[in-house]
Each structure stands twice: as structure tokens, then as C-alpha cells.
Design a protein that fits this description.
The chain contains ten helices and 13 strands. The protein has 257 residues and is an alpha/beta fold. It is globular and about 55 Å long. The N and C termini lie far apart (44 Å).
């Protein structure tokens, strides 16, 4: 029981770090426990230094509060730039792409600036804006409300949006990778959107930095074995290297080349 509580509290901290804040109800639904259980967790976590409770939600303490997406975009700049360039080198002019949410996907979009006549189907508004600088590109976005501060579209409407298209490549990241190779996300809707992209593309490309290996998130998606091409900045630490020996797909560690 203690280990379950510790894992759940680690997940709560990661969600808040990722989002900046989250409601008690959303945490209960995400983690499959009661609101009373979440409140007990918050009694332990909210020490006033890192996390705090405010009107039914938990958020980063004032001195830790940053715009989450901009904060993630500014981390591991060298690695993400190398990943973006490596992915872009695989994409020819005129290709049709699915491109997911996330800061690594944005790095890919920025690296595609030399490509022309791309058709890009994405729920990542920042990536769409980066790719709009090339006027020969065609960019297709879902409708609906933009999630701030991440500047993306999420939810079941996005899953239906990706169902309507086919692509040459599906390029996506993930919130974390478990020790069994499962890809993890913070919301099931993000899992379903990624799975829809992967199913509707000829080639699936996972763009991921080393920090995601061993990072926890509650929603479980596909396995590394389901991906056609994995591009990472550097090889992960133990026990993850063993995962790559039996993948049967191409794996590039771009900073180790």
C-alpha cells in the first residue's frame, strides 16, 4: 500500500510540474482514486515550498511557478535540436505528416524549415506557426479550444480529427517510457490521439529525449516495439538499454553518432 501511495504522489508532482496546476477532481479521475484519497496525498505534498493548495486545486508554489510549456521548450536545447534535425533529415519535400503536441515535436517543426510543400496535420499550434513560415506548406488544424499555456488542442475531438486523414509519417513524442517499453501519457485522450496518428501513417517516428526513460505518467499507450523509427538524443541508463536489443526497428541515438 505504501508503494502505491508513493508512486501516486510522484505522479501528482509530475503532473503539476508538467501543467503548472491541476484540480483535485482531475487528479482523482486521472489516477482512478477517490477525491478523499487525493486530498490525503495533498496533505503530505503541500509543504508550502514546492506545491500548494488553492481553492480545490494544487499548483506550483509562487517561486516555482513558470509557464510549463515554455519551461520544457527551454530544457535540453542541444539534444532536442539534434533530434529535430535527425527527424527532418528523414522527411522529403512534399510529404504528408502527422505531428503531435510537445516541445520535442516543436523542435522537429523548427528543423523542417528547409522542406517545401509539406502537408502537416497537427494539434500543436506552436509547431503549426513555425511551419507556416514556408508558404508552400499546407497546414491542417483541428477546431475547438486551445489549451493554454501549452498552445495545443486535446480531447476526443482531436482523436476524431486524426481519424479523417492518412499520412506518410506520424511524428510524436511521449511523456515517459516505462521499464517494459510502454509509452506513457498524462491523459488517455493523448494516448488515443497518438495511436490514431500511428495507425493512419505509413511510418511512425518516436522523437524522444533521454530524460523520458523511467519518467512516470498514468495513461498507458503502445510499446516501443510498435514503432517503426525511434530517434533519441542519447542512449538511456540501465535498465533501459536491454529494451533496444529486441525491437526489430531502427533506433538512432543522434548525439552518440
Amino acid at each position: 500500500m505504501a508503494s502505491k501511495s508513493l508512486r501516486r504522489r510522484d505522479l501528482i508532482q509530475q503532473v503539476v510540474q508538467e501543467r503548472g496546476w491541476v484540480s483535485v477532481g482531475a487528479l482523482a479521475e486521472m489516477l482512478g482514486v477517490s477525491m478523499q484519497t487525493i486530498r490525503r496525498d495533498l496533505d503530505v505534498l503541500c509543504d508550502g515550498e514546492t506545491l500548494r493548495r488553492v481553492h480545490g486545486r494544487i499548483e506550483l508554489a509562487e517561486d516555482r511557478l513558470n509557464t510549463p510549456f515554455d519551461q520544457r521548450t527551454g530544457t535540453n536545447l542541444v539534444g532536442k535540436r539534434a533530434i529535430g534535425e535527425a527527424v527532418a533529415s528523414k522527411i522529403p519535400d512534399g510529404a504528408t505528416l502527422f505531428l503531435s503536441i510537445g516541445s520535442t515535436a516543436l523542435s522537429v517543426a523548427r528543423s523542417l524549415h528547409r522542406r517545401k510543400q509539406l502537408t502537416v496535420i497537427t494539434n500543436n499550434l506552436s509547431a503549426a506557426m513555425a511551419l507556416s513560415e514556408e508558404v508552400s506548406n499546407r497546414i491542417i488544424l483541428p477546431g475547438g479550444e486551445i489549451r493554454l499555456p501549452d498552445r495545443d488542442f486535446v480531447g476526443e475531438e482531436v482523436v476524431a480529427f486524426f481519424q479523417r486523414y492518412r499520412a506518410d509519417y506520424a511524428i510524436f513524442g511521449t511523456a515517459g517510457v516505462d521499464v517494459d517499453g510502454k509509452l506513457l501519457e498524462f491523459h488517455q485522450s493523448e494516448v488515443r490521439a497518438t495511436e490514431q496518428m500511428r495507425r493512419n501513417a505509413q511510418t511512425s517516428v518516436l522523437a524522444i529525449d533521454r530524460s523520458k526513460f523511467g519518467r512516470l505518467a498514468p495513461a498507458v499507450g503502445c510499446n516501443l516495439t510498435d514503432i517503426d523509427l525511434i530517434i533519441c538524443d542519447r542512449a538511456p541508463a540501465e535498465p533501459f538499454p536491454a529494451l533496444f536489443s529486441d525491437l526489430g526497428c531502427q533506433v538512432d541515438f543522434v548525439e552518440d553518432i
